[in-house]
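If you are new to this repository, start here. Below is one unmodified record pulled from the training split, so you can see the exact layout before writing a loader.
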Amino acid sequence: MIGTFTLDQLRVLVTIAEVGSFSAAGRQLRRAQSAISQAIATLESTQGVALFDRGGHRPVLTDAGRVLVAHARLVLASAARFEAVAASTRGGVEPELALAIDPLVPTGPLIESLHALGQQFPDLPVSFSTEGLGGSLRRLRSGSAALAICLLLPAVPEDVVAYPLLRVGMRPVVATTHPLASLKRAARPGDLEPHVQLVLSDPVAPEGRTSG
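And here is the target side for that same chain:
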């Protein structure tokens, strides 16, 4: 029971809208037509709204009925989702998976992994956020994320368990108009010293690791 109506009444309403008649809904739901009629009459009475125009050969949805059928579908889908998440949790799956992602994690492999996760666990709600450098590790330590996908440099901290996923190449780049782009050889440290380097650092712990 939800307030003054039940999920069963909504299921009957949606079924009638889909199959076109009370008798067809009764056959699909394996109930007597009288039980189908009673469910709709009770729903109309408790809500104070006429769902069907019964003046013709077949009952036709009223304007309010058409709108409420759409809402009924949403409620039934949400209830099915509720039951699926509860069943998954009983089976040992997390009720929700919160991920924290470093900005340097490649987007392509991440999206592919999330797609594969959705295929394997379609009822698992997943949320993720891209954190500033070092932010994903802080969220993991605070417990606000169950899993962090991040770069751990120069070493893995002692308080986390880490599994290597992939290697990410880091290459310095310059614009085609930059003086370094005109070199006919590999740049040496001395070539780089006079020029500006953009460095990504942890905004909370600027003394910590950086990525240039």
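Two things worth knowing about this chain: Residues 114 and 120 are 10 Å apart (CA to CA). Helices lie at 7-19, 22-29, 33-47, 63-90, 107-120, 135-142, 189-192.
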